[in-house]
């Protein structure tokens, strides 16, 4: 990132002025060098401090040493390989919860300081645009949250897991913490031999010593920082064969494996169902991580979705409801993980689609009509828009408000947009759009404008007016094909919480996104009288 402007070479000057001008130039350079470090961001409307300009990360190599207790900091080393996109004299990384021991840039010691939630690094030599650089940070990674910080490490009853969405990966490791900069990941985790470690991607070895084992995992597709996952626990890893030989591996508390096996056996068929809707699974493996923790949400961490174990053991949750939650996180592997949002204002593309397929699965497998759910959503839509903003223009998270940006407007409110789109262009064009979308943008990022443009191309119609009204309007437009549907007027500026098949009434914290919706509506609306869950 471009922080401090570089001094330029001065033209040749007459000898009698050289000494004075040279002294002046030295003075200017000293002032520039002494300019205070500043926190930077990529200008995201909702999280302006996230990400950093000036470089593009190609890969992260993360090493953690777990001490056998989840209330003590882990020793860690983060190595970042990046290509500069501007001349840089300083490099800003997002990192806000740990002690930095040392920093090296291209093998040389570098100065560093903190500015806001940034780690600002000054290498011993300027970096020119278009060059490759390696940044190595030795630091701690603290699983105990600081005051007013949520997300990052999740402490389980037997170890740790991660929940970094939307803005909490930098509470775990130094990074460019914005989904627009996806990268490859390698994880090395050392833990006592009694523990099992699983991370995103595929295993690449386990080096067992007398008392500890170092586990290595690598991704085969780029990943956003918010989707990183590391599970450390007294766990069993259960293997199944998915469609076309896809490796399915689930991670569960070892003591509960037998009770959880019936749920684990459902994943291969759910993957096959999703493939029938949108095409081949986009990654090298998949599985669910059932954590012994009270989070209030589920999370689509890439190739290893995070769930509360309680979701599967609480008898009040109907089976159809639990399965729809599983499908919500599974669908995110296409929508949100493989195709990631370019900005956080595009998050409706993630959550709207995951909610859509969750509801479609409930319709096809449990006879819960999609139309009924969408009619309920339509009735609440104006209230959601007032409380949280239109689906593609969500209101920024308020300071101290745990719900963050994960409000009903980007869940059922966004799924309602997809329902209206299917009504508008017809089922055949809509289903083709879904398949083409995930194929064209696989392993990359995309925007709301990209989706609108593709929809117009596939339908053969200019849909710009449709999307402007449905995605950015303060009021919900009339529903195509259902002129009798009515949206209730907002009762106040703080309308009620929304609804989602997996959302709890409680909100997700910062860095642990939330989509709280009330019991009594949505796919899980009458789930045995239990509260709704949060799923990102």
From TrEMBL:
CDD domains assigned: M1_APN_like (cd09603)
Pfam families: Peptidase_M1, Peptidase_M1_N
Signal peptide positions on this chain: 1-34
Species in which this protein is naturally found: Streptomyces broussonetiae
Protein name, as recorded: Aminopeptidase N
Keywords: Hydrolase, Metal-binding, Metalloprotease, Protease, Signal, Zinc
GO-annotated molecular function: alanyl aminopeptidase activity; metallopeptidase activity; zinc ion binding
Region (Disordered): 478-536
Enzyme class: hydrolase
Listed InterPro entries: Aminopeptidase_N-like_N, Aminopeptidase_N-like_N_sf, Peptidase_M1, Peptidase_M1_aminopeptidases, Peptidase_M1_dom, Peptidase_M4/M1_CTD_sf
Domain Aminopeptidase N-like N-terminal: 72-225
GO biological process: proteolysis
Peptidase M1 membrane alanine aminopeptidase domain location: 280-470
Annotated Gly residues bias: 522-536
EC number: 3.4.11.2
CC cofactor: Zn(2+)
Superkingdom field: Bacteria
Catalytic activity from the UniProt record: Release of an N-terminal amino acid, Xaa-|-Yaa- from a peptide, amide or arylamide. Xaa is preferably Ala, but may be most amino acids including Pro (slow action). When a terminal hydrophobic residue is followed by a prolyl residue, the two may be released as an intact Xaa-Pro dipeptide
Keyword RNA-binding found: no
UniProt similarity note: Belongs to the peptidase M1 family.
């Amino acid at each position: 990132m471009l922080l401090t402007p570089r001094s330029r070479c001065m033209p040749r000057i007459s000898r009698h002025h050289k000494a004075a001008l040279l002294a002046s130039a030295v003075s200017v350079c000293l002032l520039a060098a002494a300019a205070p470090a500043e926190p930077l961001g990529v200008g995201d409307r909702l999280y302006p401090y996230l990400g950093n300009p000036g470089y593009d990360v190609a890969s992260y190599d993360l090493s953690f040493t777990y001490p056998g207790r989840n209330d003590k900091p882990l020793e860690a080393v983060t190595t970042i390989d990046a290509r500069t996109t501007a001349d840089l004299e300083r490099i800003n990384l997002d990192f806000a919860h740990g002690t930095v021991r040392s920093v090296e840039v291209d093998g040389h010691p570098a100065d560093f300081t903190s500015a806001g939630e940034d780690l600002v690094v000054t290498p011993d030599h300027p970096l020119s645009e278009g060059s490759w650089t390696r940044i190595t940070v030795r630091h701690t990674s603290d699983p105990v949250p600081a005051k007013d910080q949520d997300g990052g490490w999740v402490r389980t009853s037997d170890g740790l897991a991660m929940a970094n969405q939307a803005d909490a990966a930098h509470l775990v490791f130094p990074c460019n913490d914005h989904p627009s900069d996806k990268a490859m990941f390698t994880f090395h985790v050392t833990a006592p031999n009694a523990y099992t470690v699983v991370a995103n991607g595929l295993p690449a070895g386990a080096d067992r010593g007398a008392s500890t084992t170092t586990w290595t995992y690598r991704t085969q597709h780029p990943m956003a920082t918010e989707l990183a996952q590391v599970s450390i626990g007294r766990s069993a890893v259960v293997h199944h064969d998915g469609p076309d030989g896809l490796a399915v591996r689930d991670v569960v508390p070892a003591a509960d494996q037998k009770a959880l096996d019936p749920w684990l056996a459902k994943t291969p068929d759910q993957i096959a169902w999703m493939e029938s809707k949108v095409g081949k699974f986009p990654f090298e493996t998949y599985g669910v991580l059932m954590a012994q923790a009270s989070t209030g949400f589920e999370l689509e961490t890439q190739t290893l979705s995070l769930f509360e174990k309680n979701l599967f053991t609480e008898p009040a949750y109907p089976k159809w409801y639990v399965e729809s939650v599983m499908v919500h996180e599974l669908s995110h592997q296409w929508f949100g993980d493989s195709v990631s949002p370019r900005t956080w204002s595009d998050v409706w593309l993630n959550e709207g689609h995951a909610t859509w397929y969750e509801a479609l699965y409930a319709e096809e497998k449990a006879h819960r009509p999609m139309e009924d759910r969408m009619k309920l959503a339509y009735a609440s839509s104006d209230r959601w828009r007032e409380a949280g903003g239109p689906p593609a223009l969500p209101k920024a998270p308020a300071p101290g408000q745990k719900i963050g940006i994960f409000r009903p407007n980007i869940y059922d409110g966004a799924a309602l947009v997809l329902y209206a789109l299917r009504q508008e262009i017809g089922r055949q064009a809509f289903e083709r759009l879904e398949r083409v979308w995930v194929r064209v943008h696989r392993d990359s990022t995309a925007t709301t404008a990209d989706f609108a443009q593709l929809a117009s191309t596939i339908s053969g119609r200019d849909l710009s007016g449709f999307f402007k009204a449905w995605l950015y309007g303060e009021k919900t437009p009339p529903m195509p094909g259902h002129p009798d549907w009515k949206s209730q007027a907002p009762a106040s500026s703080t309308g009620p919480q929304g609804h989602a098949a997996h959302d709890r009434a409680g909100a997700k914290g910062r860095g642990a996104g939330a989509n709280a919706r009330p019991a009594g509506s949505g796919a899980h609306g009458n789930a045995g009288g239990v509260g709704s869950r949060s799923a990102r």
